[in-house]
Design goal:
There is one protein chain. By secondary structure, this protein is of the alpha+beta class. Helix content is about 35%, strand content about 25%. The protein has 8 helices and 16 strands. Helix 5 packs antiparallel against helix 6. The protein is globular. The structure holds (3R)-3-hydroxy-3-methyl-5-(phosphonooxy)pentanoic acid (PMV). (3R)-3-hydroxy-3-methyl-5-(phosphonooxy)pentanoic acid binds next to helix 2 and helix 4. (3R)-3-hydroxy-3-methyl-5-(phosphonooxy)pentanoic acid (PMV) binds next to helix 2 and helix 4.
């Protein structure tokens, strides 16, 4: 066991969505999904031995309690069964807004997995690490890698290729409040109640296959259109769920429509939305000034520019 380990893991945004588990226990998805790992909003996690303070876990400086603590603890136990009886303090810092559809749980579980693997000197291979990481959050397994990452129905994660350095994802913040229903719960409702779900599996898998062919080398227009299609399919599952799941705000939908309109005038930019109201715009550096000019004109004032990021890694180990 080490004295102290610090890790970092990127957030990832799905270009082709994951929505629904075929195997809840093993966290195996119904369809493949594809994401890009990004540079901002990463999670940094430290695992330290303390002299006599028992086990503690803080997220953004606050001690976790109740259900939230139980979930993290169950995850930690996958690395060291009796961790609760160790003098170990774990501190996780998300550098972006938590639970607002900006993938903070993905970076958080990937960073925790990488840190615990190093702290307990387990030396797990990627396959094992992936199998464990996705039990924290399915999409977290994609945050282990950089570039364009495909997570398959069989559970493998693979880097398809590096993302071009001129690619930009603009995260437009519509609302930073935490989501009312977790993606875990919402997708289960979708699988069990949406009359569209069976077709979603066919359509979204088809998008994953098509997208893989246009990512390397990167074709922004083709990837962008497919990303918007996959986003629409996922939100159609939510709309046809019982109860209906709605993470979007009127301003989210308005921005999606505006970007389509700007595209008609030559802008090369595409939108996606996840389990939250914020809108992510996929574009390239040469389009940036124009996108920002449009956003400012429409009064979308809070946005962040994200570029391709590094994979999950240990940055300190003592
Ligand atoms: O990994 P989870 O359980 O947080 O689910 C993530 C689901 C989406 O972010 C909405 C889509 C995706 O593929 O990341």
């Amino acid at each position: 066991m080490k004295e102290m380990v610090i890790s970092q893991a990127p957030i990832n945004i799905a270009l082709c969505k994951y929505w629904g588990k075929k195997d809840i226990k093993k966290v195996l998805p119904y369809t493949d999904s594809i994401s890009i790992s990004l540079d901002k909003f990463y999670t940094e996690t430290s695992v330290k031995r303390t002299s006599n303070q028992g086990f503690s876990y803080t997220l953004n400086g606050e001690r976790l309690k109740g259900e939230a603590l139980k979930k993290v603890l169950d995850f930690c136990r996958l690395f060291y069964d009796d961790i609760i009886n160790l003098n170990v303090s774990i501190a996780s810092m998300n550098t972006g807004p938590t639970s607002a559809g900006l993938a903070s749980s993905a970076s958080a579980y990937a960073a925790l997995a990488i840190a615990l693997n190093e702290f307990f000197e387990l030396d797990y291979d990627q396959e094992t690490l992936t199998t464990i990481t996705r039990k924290g959050s399915g999409s977290a397994s994609r945050s282990l890698l950089d570039g364009f990452v495909r997570w398959t129905r069989k559970g493998h994660v693979e880097k398809l290729c590096s993302a071009p350095s001129n690619l930009v994802m603009i995260a437009v913040v519509i609302d930073e409040s935490e989501k009312e229903i977790s993606s875990r719960e919402a997708m289960e409702i979708g699988v069990n109640t949406s009359s569209y779900y069976e077709q979603f599996i066919v359509d979204n898998q088809d998008i994953a296959d098509k997208m893989t062919k246009v990512l390397c080398p990167f074709d922004l227009q083709k990837v962008g259109i497919l990303m918007e299609e996959s986003t629409a399919l996922m939100h159609r599952v939510m709309e046809t769920s019982n109860p209906v799941i709605n993470y979007l705000r009127p301003r989210s939908i308005q921005l999606k429509e505006l970007v389509k309109k700007w595209r008609k005038n030559g802008l090369k930019a595409y939108t996606t939305m996840d389990a939250g109201p914020n809108v992510k715009i996929l574009t390239t550096v040469d389009q940036l000034d124009e996108v920002i000019r449009h956003l400012d004109a429409e009064d979308y004032t809070t946005y962040y520019q994200l570029s391709p990021g590094k994979k999950a890694r240990v940055i300190t180990s003592e």
